[in-house]
Amino acid sequence: MSTATAPSTLASVLADLSAEGVDLDALVSADGVDLTTPTPAPGWTIGHQLGHLRWTDELTVLTCTDPAGFRAALSRLTDASGIARAIEGGARLGAGTPAEELLASWRAGRVAVIDALCRVPSGTRLEWIGPPMGAGTMASARIMETWAHGQDIADALGVLRTPTDRLRHVADLGVRTRDHAFRTNGLPVPSDPFRIELTAPSGAIWSWGPPAATETVVGPAVDFALLVTQRRHPADLELTATGPLAEHWMTIAQAFAGAPGAGRIPQAECP
Questions:
Q1: Complete domains list, the chain, with CATH
Q2: Is 249:242 a contact under the CB 8 Å cutoff?
Q3: CB 121: neighbour CB atoms within 10 A?
Q4: Cα distance between residue 196 and residue 194, in whole Å
Q5: How far is Cα 28 from Cα 183, in angstroms, rounded to an integer?
Q6: Average pLDDT of the chain?
Q7: DSSP strand E in 59-145: where?
Q8: Confidence of residue 1 (pLDDT cuts 50, 70, 90)
Q9: 48 Cβ contact list (under 8 Å, min separation 6)
Q10: How many CB atoms lie within 10 A of CB 207?
């Protein structure tokens, strides 16, 4: 049994981040793709999705290269509503940018993120909208964001993506953010760890938590990634939760920082 909690070198995580960006780039650069196409995120087109990724990449570079500047930028957002407005603003700016210009700036931002992260001194904690994190975790978070917003774009285009074992990063963040999901929903944090067992796209088994845990989640890694990025409703996923806390976690899980996400409605209820 392999485990997704084995440490990765920063170089390997950055290589996965680069590959995730390349895959999404191929998707949005295909002939006939219109960046004004609506995506499943209410009010967001493909251009909004790429604009959001560009905005968060810029923040990532800022926290790596100018921590004081990042703190100043974050202080101007004041609260959760301010952060939400800034997120919408970054997406809206992208949607209003000519397609070729948006694609070029997003590509440059991806390169800048990798360059900035590889220069972060070992042991440095990078400030963020959520809790501070190391460069490796930040790189994993960028993989999660790229994959999640890429899923919205793939859904908008009717494209079925082939999952890769880069989903390990998304799944690991989903597990590590369990407590945040409970806290941000105003709920008590479970006192005991859950057991998570996921089948990777390669067929390997990734696991977290003690085998004897009474609260468990088992299923495909891609479905767990869709769950914790809130790209699918739990009813549409082949995940099995055992225990009342694990069952409730399935309804609130989120691998991203900030306030509770709105999630998605079951596909059976889609118009």
A1: 10-157 (1.20.120.450), 167-269 (3.30.1050)
A2: no
A3: 6
A4: 6
A5: 36
A6: 93
A7: none
A8: very low
A9: 39, 41, 91, 92, 94, 95
A10: 18
